[in-house]
């Protein structure tokens, strides 16, 4: 009993001093702030700046001077710089996206010694007040944003719903909404032609940051009955685990 | 094309409205135009309309809010007409930020810009025909946002319905989310719960803390103040909203309805589900807890009302009596000391009478150790608990930051509370063992309870109290005390009362879900009030009355080290506790109490610890009293 009490008090003391948890993933990848990247880009030896998102996204808007190399294409051999010591900075669409880190890890494995990621991704770059470049901008339209409980009702209602999961095949394998099909964003510029025009499409991504642009892209191509999952699959999982009461519904309307 | 960051294209509805008055006037002066009209398009009226003669350019644009700007207000000039007609020269699209700079600065942090790269013209699509909204601006904003974010719950909520009815105080989308400053709080993701919760709670408070606005609509003007008096509100107020319920956690962000509505999250039928979002493992009666009760409202919250009255009376009477007692005692002692000094009388030698003893023991090492632990745990409790009580002050936020955040402070508070509870149980055990010593059974327990070694009050204490007041006014001799004076007994027994109230309520509050299996949720409201007020009583009593009686009274000033060294001069015993002195002599115990003078290191250590505690306590007392007086 005495030992239990001592252990309990010790546990509370330990709990009061939370240690610095080691980074679970890729803790050794260097991060550069937008200011540092901007300074390097205007310096004598600018780094290779790589946009790791899909070509559609990269052409829509990217940091000036960056190359469009989707992370899914890196493993298969990309147009890599010859100098293995040349600094390469990868970035993606949000502070929480994993693409830039995955790309940097791949580059390190391929023998590049100076790989880094842009801290905070593209939003941090924009928030710092720096420009972006558009070469083929997608026209933005009002895309219905559907919350998980509404989508769940739609799914249970049957009908002509097509759940279009635009994550990578690896991400898709880790879990998806039953009945959804996987068309990675990186392949959408060709794969869209195979999509049915007579069905209601719901675009699903990881966290809700990419599905809007994908939906706008499909809308431009005539797939007008389209909506997207608010918050992406991560929000869907929260909804599934906590029930519908936490997240209010957001119904469809265009 | 290098796209410039925010605000570089078209303007928002709000500013466009303003621009008709401000900007329009200013720019029209530049271009030498008058109010927009269908007949004239300044700067490019001749050239552009020759080709761009669609209805929107010829008829709608001159009537729009930007009509006075002309084509060159937003588009760069065409240098080579032939190239332009051949599609080889495109006039530059000028930045909207040239006029709408403030919006551009806000928009650089807008979620839609950062994550979806929305440009001005992506929302303001009808820019060439833009006119001030015919109806309510709030309704126009609602219409624009719901192009993507249609939300039935909002539309059916109190806010939504009121906006649709034309209520200009009710919250439309932009009132909570911002119009051009929509923050990156993607609430579907739990990556910034603290910032999002703080941001949205502040947004709710902005209107619901506006007394005039609330009264205008027959709503409670005190709900924010009352929320800030609860545990949830206090932790949020001290700057750590991540672990406590903000407004939207209970009321949701869009489904905000009165509690009598069956689909409202705060409807009694939905409270178990609602509270389960954060709390788990509780009995259904847990939801009887009131989220922001008004303890001044006797009709709706009688138990809280009377608890509050009880505590206020208790505090008032306790401090009235003891502060007066202390002040009178101080006066009497200071006056007498001055009188002695004036007459050149110095205190006698430390060796008392015929015993030839200098120092004797008052407290054994075990009691010194217990008091040190008591001091440490008490200060930890005060330094971690009071920042919550006075969460709005700068010193509270500073202290919480020193602890490394509200979570850490809370953990230390609980550790210190457990230490104090263990200490209390040891004292309780020793008190019972004193009353009922092994082998003696219950024989003679009353004599021990009311005897001279006991800390329990007896008739003599009452007599001493009266005699003390007479002495204060020079109407009698100072009472002859035994081992424990009446004020020391009060200090001791106050611990029993205090531990019962603070400790009991603290345990309830530490495990509120478990408590619900014993008691209904509203008891937690009472526990919270008792805990807070009793803590104020305890802290102020210790830092003022106890400190003055023990250390700051002129005969002891600046500090009495006895409690830390365990020893004092026999002369002091003879003077201050003559009955004990005589008893010890009579019982021939004096020799066994004899101790060496404390070592230099013992004295230094005692002084360092004692002065640190004394100064910290006095400083905290000043902070607390200053905060109370300012509120």
Spatial arrangement of strands, main beta sheet of chain B? 3-2-4
Approximate helicity band of chain A:
25-40%
User: What structural class should be given to the helix and strand makeup of chain A?
Assistant: alpha/beta
CATH class (first level) name of the largest domain in chain A? Alpha Beta
The main pleated sheet of chain A reads as: 5 strands, parallel
Strand order of the largest sheet of chain A: 1-5-4-2-3
How many domains in all of chain B?
Answer: 4
Query: What profile does the largest beta sheet of chain B have?
Result: 3 strands, antiparallel
Number of helices of chain B: 32
Low-confidence stretches of chain A: 1-26, 244-254
Question: Largest protein interface?
Answer: A-B, 54 and 46 residues
Radius of gyration of chain A: 22 Å
Low-confidence runs of chain B: 1-42
Proportion of residues in extended strands of chain A: 5-15%
User: What is the molecular shape of chain A?
Assistant: elongated
Short key terms for the protein model shown above:
heterodimer, A: 254 residues, alpha/beta, Oxidized Rhodanese, domain 1, 2 domains, five-stranded parallel beta sheet, 34% helix, disordered N terminus, B: 631 residues, 4 domains, three-stranded antiparallel beta sheet, 2% strand, elongated
């Amino acid at each position: 009993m005495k030992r239990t009490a001592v252990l309990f008090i010790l546990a509370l003391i330990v709990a009061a001093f939370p240690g610095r948890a080691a980074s679970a993933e890729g803790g050794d990848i260097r991060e550069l702030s937008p200011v540092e990247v901007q300074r390097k880009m205007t310096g004598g030896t600018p780094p290779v700046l790589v946009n790791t998102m899909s070509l559609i996204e990269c052409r829509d808007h990217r940091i000036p001077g960056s190359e469009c190399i989707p992370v899914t294409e890196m493993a298969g051999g990309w147009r890599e710089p010859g100098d293995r010591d040349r600094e390469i900075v990868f970035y993606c669409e949000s502070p929480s996206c994993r693409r830039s880190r995955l790309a940097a890890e791949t580059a390190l494995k391929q023998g590049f010694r100076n790989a880094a990621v842009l801290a905070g991704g593209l939003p941090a770059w924009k928030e710092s007040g720096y420009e972006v470049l558009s070469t083929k901008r997608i026209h933005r339209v009002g895309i219905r944003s559907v919350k998980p409980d509404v989508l769940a009702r739609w799914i249970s209602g049957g009908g002509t719903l097509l759940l279009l999961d635009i994550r990578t095949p690896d991400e898709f394998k880790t879990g998806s909404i039953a009945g959804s099909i996987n068309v990675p964003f990186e392949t959408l510029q060709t794969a869209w032609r195979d999509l049915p025009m007579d069905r209601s499409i719901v675009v699903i991504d990881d966290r809700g940051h990419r599905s809007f642009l994908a939906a706008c892209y499909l809308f431009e191509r005539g797939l007008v009955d389209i909506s997207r999952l608010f918050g992406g699959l991560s929000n869907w999982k929260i909804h599934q685990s906590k029930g519908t009461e936490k997240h209010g519904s957001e119904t469809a309307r265009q | 094309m290098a796209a410039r960051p925010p605000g570089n294209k078209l303007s928002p509805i709000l500013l466009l409205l303003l621009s008709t008055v401000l900007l329009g006037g200013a720019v029209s002066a530049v271009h030498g135009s008058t109010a927009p009209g269908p007949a004239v398009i300044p700067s490019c009226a001749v050239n552009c309309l020759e080709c761009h003669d669609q209805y929107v350019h010829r008829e709608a644009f001159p009537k729009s809010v930007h009509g006075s700007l002309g084509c060159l207000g937003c588009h760069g000039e065409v240098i080579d007409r032939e190239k332009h007609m051949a599609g080889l020269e495109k006039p530059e699209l000028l930045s909207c930020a040239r006029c709408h700079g403030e919006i551009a600065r806000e928009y650089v942090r807008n979620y839609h810009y950062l994550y979806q790269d929305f440009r001005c013209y992506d929302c303001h699509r009808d820019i060439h025909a833009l006119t001030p909204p015919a109806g309510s601006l709030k309704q126009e904003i609602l219409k624009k946002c719901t192009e993507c974010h249609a939300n039935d719950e909002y539309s059916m909520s109190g806010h939504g319905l009121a906006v649709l009815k034309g209520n200009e105080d009710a919250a439309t989308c932009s009132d909570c989310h911002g119009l051009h400053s929509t923050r990156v709080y993607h609430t579907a993701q739990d990556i910034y719960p603290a910032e999002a919760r703080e941001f949205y709670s502040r947004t709710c408070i902005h209107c619901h803390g506006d007394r005039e606005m609330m009264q205008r609509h027959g709503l409670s003007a005190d709900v924010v103040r009352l929320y800030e008096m609860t545990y949830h509100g206090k932790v949020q107020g001290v700057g750590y909203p991540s672990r406590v319920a903000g407004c939207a956690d209970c009321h949701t962000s869009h489904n905000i309805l009165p509690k009598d509505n069956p689909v409202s999250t705060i409807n009694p039928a939905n409270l178990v589900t609602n509270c389960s979002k954060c709390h788990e493992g509780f009995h259904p009666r847990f939801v009887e807890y009131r989220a922001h009760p008004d303890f001044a409202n006797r009709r709706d919250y009688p138990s809280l009302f009377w608890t509050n009255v009880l505590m206020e009376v208790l505090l008032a009477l306790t401090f009235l009596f003891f502060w007066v007692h202390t002040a009178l005692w101080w006066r009497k002692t200071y006056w007498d000391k001055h009188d002695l000094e004036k007459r050149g009388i110095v205190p006698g030698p430390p060796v008392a009478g015929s015993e030839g003893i200098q120092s004797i023991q008052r407290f054994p090492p075990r009691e010194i150790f217990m008091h040190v632990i008591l001091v440490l745990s008490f200060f930890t409790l005060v330094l971690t608990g009071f920042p919550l009580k006075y969460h709005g002050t700068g010193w509270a936020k500073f202290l919480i930051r020193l602890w490394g955040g509200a979570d850490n402070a809370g953990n230390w508070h609980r550790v210190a509370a457990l230490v104090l509870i263990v200490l209390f149980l040891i004292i309780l055990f020793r008190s019972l063992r004193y009353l009922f010593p092994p082998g003696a059974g219950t024989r003679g327990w009353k004599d021990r309870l009311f005897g001279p070694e006991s800390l329990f009050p007896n008739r003599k204490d009452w007599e001493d109290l009266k005699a003390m007041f007479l002495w204060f006014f020079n109407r009698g001799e100072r009472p002859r005390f035994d081992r424990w004076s009446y004020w020391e007994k009060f200090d001791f027994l106050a611990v029993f009362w205090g531990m019962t109230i603070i400790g009991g309520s603290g345990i309830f509050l530490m495990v509120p879900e478990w408590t619900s299996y014993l008691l209904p949720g509203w008891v937690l409201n009472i526990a919270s009030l008792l805990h807070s007020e009793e803590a104020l009583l305890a802290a102020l009593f210790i830092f003022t009355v106890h400190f003055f009686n023990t250390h700051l009274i002129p005969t002891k000033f600046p500090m009495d080290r006895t409690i830390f060294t365990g020893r004092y001069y026999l002369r002091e015993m003879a003077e201050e506790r003559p009955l004990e002195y005589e008893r010890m002599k009579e019982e021939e115990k004096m020799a066994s109490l004899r101790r060496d003078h404390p070592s230099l290191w013992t004295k230094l250590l005692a002084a360092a610890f004692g002065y640190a505690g004394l100064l910290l306590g006095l400083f905290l007392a000043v902070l607390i009293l200053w905060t109370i007086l300012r509120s």
